[in-house]
């Protein structure tokens, strides 16, 4: 961790946050919008995990678990966009 | 001899953090389960919430997290006075989170958005209130860390308590980064 990397990480996190907010204001549902939002979410998560938490220098077990957590929501965003109705049918009890 | 794997802070805080991540992973699964079964409610939901409030709280969490990281960096350089100033900045910034949340809930209620509303609103209140509880614990922890730092409890050689708190605070920030797009952004 050094000052320059922290400052740049915070700046990038702000840019990504406001980009996401703009999408929330104007975007309509589409595959690429979903992928963009998922990508922004994953990238922000990775910046926090590697630069703020410094897990890139930590125990591999901790690093993998937390990095994995940071990918759950982005992956489910894309998965449920692509397979929403099929997954909904799969989760219903049979009549 | 193999170098032991580094655990930031201490083992106890990681038990807490993993419990926190597990709890929110389960809640995210419930969110997606509700979303695929009620796509219309989740498509219309974000338009009913205040994007400004959600964005403000994201900026608050990220900036407070950044200040905490600067406090750790200063302590590592044996500048405990500067570290305390960064922690005070983090605390003052983070107090904005419950304030924005209170204003947001007041606005929600005036718009008829309550916990007894549709499935989107129920998920929103359940997840965000839970997160607010975690932020509140974090604020109490931060106050304790500030006291310890102010009374010379940490040094460049021994500040694992500060790193343990920082890890928890960053994890709570990370969880908010997942919640924000789910309720305020994703159409």
UniProtKB/TrEMBL annotation, chain A:
Main location: membrane
Keyword field contains ATP-binding: no
Highest taxon in the source lineage: Bacteria
Stored Pfam families: COX4_pro
InterPro entries, A to Z: Cyt_c_oxidase_su4_prok
Gene Ontology CC annotations of this record: plasma membrane
Entry membrane topology: Multi-pass membrane protein
Keywords recorded for this protein, A-Z: Cell membrane, Membrane, Transmembrane, Transmembrane helix
UniProt subcellular location: Cell membrane
Keyword Transmembrane part of the UniProt annotation: yes
Transmembrane segments: 33-53, 65-84
Listed name of the protein: Thiosulfate reductase
The species this protein was found in: Thiolapillus brandeum
């Amino acid at each position: 961790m050094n000052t320059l990397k922290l400052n740049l990480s915070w700046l990038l996190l702000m840019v990504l946050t406001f980009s996401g907010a703009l999408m929330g204001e104007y975007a309509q549902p589409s595959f690429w919008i979903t992928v963009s939002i998922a990508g922004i979410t994953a990238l922000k998560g990775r910046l926090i995990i590697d630069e703020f938490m410094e897990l890139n220098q930590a125990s591999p077990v901790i690093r993998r678990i937390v990095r994995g957590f940071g990918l759950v929501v982005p992956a489910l965003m894309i998965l449920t966009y692509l397979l929403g109705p099929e997954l909904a049918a799969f989760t219903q009890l049979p009549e | 001899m193999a170098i032991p794997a580094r655990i930031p802070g201490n083992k106890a805080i990681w038990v807490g953090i993993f419990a926190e991540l597990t709890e929110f992973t389960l809640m995210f699964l419930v969110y997606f389960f509700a979303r695929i079964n009620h796509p219309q409610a989740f498509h219309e939901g974000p338009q009913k919430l205040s994007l400004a409030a959600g964005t403000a709280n994201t900026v608050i969490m990220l900036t407070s997290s950044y200040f905490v990281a600067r406090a750790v960096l200063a302590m590592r350089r044996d500048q405990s006075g500067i570290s305390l100033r960064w922690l005070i900045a983090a605390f003052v910034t983070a107090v904005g989170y419950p304030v924005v949340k209170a204003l947001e809930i007041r606005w929600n209620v005036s718009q008829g958005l309550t916990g007894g509303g549709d499935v989107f609103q129920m998920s929103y209140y359940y997840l965000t209130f839970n997160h607010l509880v975690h932020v509140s614990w974090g604020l109490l922890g931060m106050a304790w860390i500030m006291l310890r730092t102010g009374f010379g409890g940490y040094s460049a050689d021994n500040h694992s308590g500060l790193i343990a708190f920082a890890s928890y605070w960053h994890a709570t920030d990370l969880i908010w980064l997942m919640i924000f797009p789910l309720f305020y952004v994703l159409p």
